[in-house]
Amino acid sequence: MGEPGAPWVLVDAGMPGFAAKIRATAEARYGVGARPAAIVLTHGHFDHTGSLADLVREWDVPIYAHHLEMPYLTGASLYPPMDPTVGGFFAFLSRFFPCDSYDSADCLQELPADGALPHMPGWEWHHTPGHTPGHVSLWRRGDRTLIAGDAFITVGLSKLTDTVTQKQELTPPPTPATPDWDSARRSVQRLASLHPFTAATGHGRPMSGPNLARDLQAFAENFPVPSHGRYIHEPARADDTGILSVPPPAPDPLAKQLALGAGLAVVAGFALTLARRRSDRKGNMEE
Length: 287
Ligand SMILES: [Zn+2]
Ligand SMILES: [Zn+2]
What we know:
Number of domains: 2
CATH architecture of the largest domain: 4-Layer Sandwich
Oligomer: single chain
Strand content: 15-25%
Order of helices and strands: EHEHHEHHEEEEEHEHEEHEEH
Shape: globular
Bound molecules: zinc ion
Largest sheet: 5 strands, mixed
Distance between the termini: 82 Å
């Protein structure tokens, strides 16, 4: 964020392996050798911090995050386990996502308690937990621009076709990685009450225009919580040391099917080996 020729700030640090692309994009806008004044994290999920280590090694700048997000950025705590039972394409994929936390303790600083964003005049941060305990969204009152992180997103991730086509729609935070749905709903209601004109989110293309505030208000009033899953009726609980408790896993029919399939394959392999040994023995006796 920032105009060419003025100090600028990087918001979130993308997927792993994107440091060179982020640097090249920054240099195209701010000039060769451009370096931000700081990096601000909406939260610490791997798709928002994947290139953080490489960028900080190059830039050596402070990283700002909410104090409730610190345990996942310092390696003190892992996020709650993903919930692949919540349904949809993205939940299926979540079985393969990493759940490491990233140790960026050296450069980390807490966001100022007064809601101001360092090096971003005119911007303020709002605590929008639910997707993660220390999730924040960034707001510029002057032109009603919102950077919502993953508090809500503008692309459906449940269906492969919507994800591939990037069809624009207001969507709850990525479902398998959201362990507190009451907080997630309240956060979206809080953002809707700001009446944004433009919203950029962690997934999907930015939305802008006079209808956005009305549509976001309707979305917040009818916030679509998934019908089933591990965290729907009971949240993961956390404090500033990290995760304190998580509800037990929900039944996972696909995991059972995969386990059953693997079990049947082992039994079939065993039976085949036995049958081969028997026929070898029979062959030897007939020789
Ligand atoms: Zn996220
Ligand atoms: Zn994300």
